Amino acid sequence: MNDIKPPQKKTWVYYYVMTLLIVMLLNALVFPLFQQDRVQEVDYSRFISMLEEGQIKEVEISEKQIAFTPNDEADKNIYITGRVTGDNDLVGRLLDAGVLFGEVYPKENSPLLNFILTWILPILIFVLLGQLMTRMMQKRMGTNAMTFGKSNAKVYVEAQTGKTFVDVAGQDEAKQALSELVDFLNHPEKYREIGAQMPKGALLVGPPGTGKTLLAKAVAGEAGVPFFSISGSEFVEMFVGMGAARVRDLFKQAQEKAPCIVFIDEIDTIGKKRDNSGMGGNDEREQTLNQLLSEMDGFDGSKGVVILAATNRPETLDKALLRPGRFDRRIPVELPDLAGREAILKVHAKNVKTGEKIDFNAVARATSGASGAELANIVNEAALHAVRDGRSAVVQNDFDEAVETVIAGYQRKGAVISEKEKKIIAYHEIGHALVAARQKNSAPVHKITIVPRTSGALGYTMQVEEGESVLMSREQAFEKIATLTGGRAAEELVFGTCTSGASNDIEQATKIARAMVARLGMSEEFDMMALETVTNQYLGGDTALACSAETAAKVDQKVLELIKQAHAAAAGILKENEAKLHELAGYLLERETITGEEFMEILGRPEPPVPPGEEADQ
Ligand code: ADP
Ligand code: MG
Ligand code: ZN
Asked: What whole-number distance in Å separates Cα of residue 454 and Cα of residue 459?
């Protein structure tokens, strides 16, 4: 990055050079023009003849030349002529002519003054100019590039962000998680008294435009504390060592202003996993990250400095950042569901003038997969459309038009999903949930959603274990695989085909099956033999094969067998519960997100005969 010159510097040098050039041009061409008609050079004979004819008023003799003014009042010229050394009688002639004359006494500067003028003054001028320029540069770049080590980190401090939780629509879970931080910032003593440690940092994780930055500002607004924000990419800049210095500075400033919020946006730019893959050049980032880690460990959290960070690539973050005492709280900020979208539309519609009552629910239904930022954009598009139509208030039609304009953009991005695909996704997710619910050892379904995630998932079925368990039995592992295959099994059963939607399921199912065979000793054939070892447990947990190629082939065979069994089991469960599958999928399509309770309620309703014994354990 060192070779990127700030553009301001160029313009400065440019102006400087231009001024110099102009002065030089004036000197060389224009000023002599003024003088030309004032000073006339004549030859010596002319001088003598003018002197003899009494036309000269005053003469000034200097070392090399003679300057004289004529008697003629109308002639404003000053004449000069070279001094002829042979003319010894000049003084006599001048006396004869009776003109005023004298010799210019060459002024001798003192040697000290000479020295100052020729040496000190130019240097002084250069130094002053240089200082002026660097100061201008610094002001424009906002960074003190010339003083290493002490950086003026470009920290944006806002005394009041002007945002509160009211400005953030939906995102109730995130708001709830953050409200504890707000309470801590408002009443730190309450926590100090009891000896409770607040988490030092919370990490907002979610796709772009879902309101992570907005939420961070809202926390500061709710607590009424200063908001320091800096973007991760600004840390890594310019000179080596600057990033680390900035982190140090940031924390120093923050601690002086406590209680306050430090917000590091796009933390993945500095918080990437440290590995050996990069060919050098990673040093700067690693230094910055290390500094951040040690600062987070070093400062006293009870003072009331809360660090928030945001990222949309949590999987790339260094594990060290996520350990307790650092960003140990992870707050998901997901794409809004139907109710959330409606709320966001309403919040933003407050800023535009609406003519009639707008059906925001309809707009929200048409924009599944849109983020908060995109919804804000739709409201703005609607207002623009109204202006284009020459109306002074926004009507329903403007919103419909805006959705269409924006959705054309979405479809390219693949975020908004057609009705037909949505149906497939709904069946897929219900397939997972149904298989899970109808098995003995599966965790209960917590939430099912077909709101697409930017992570690539088009929907998901969340299961939450009832208690905390550290062990996984062979049966549990097998049922997990069956649950994962349930999505595809539902597609096959209902649509008689399969889609690419199961790619993630396939990956996960294979991972579990492979672990069962190769690491967990859960296959009869290999008993308790370790066929794979975990190489870097703390950074990712990659595995390496620890067996012969022949055995590896057998492992693959065994893994495939396991998955096939599980797939068949899932297909069987769905076949038995086909009526419920249709009912639930229809309900999910309508709601987009349903809770585990709703799911179990519908599943529990008396309807098609369920084979006895199957339901016992729900
Ligand atoms: P992120 O940081 O997650 O990428 P931002 O917080 O910058 O997203 O959100 C961008 C804009 O989108 C916000 O300024 C706001 O206008 C709008 N927005 C996003 N989510 C919401 C929300 N939940 N409620 C209201 N406005 C939102
Ligand atoms: Mg942001
Ligand atoms: Zn799936």
From this structure: 10
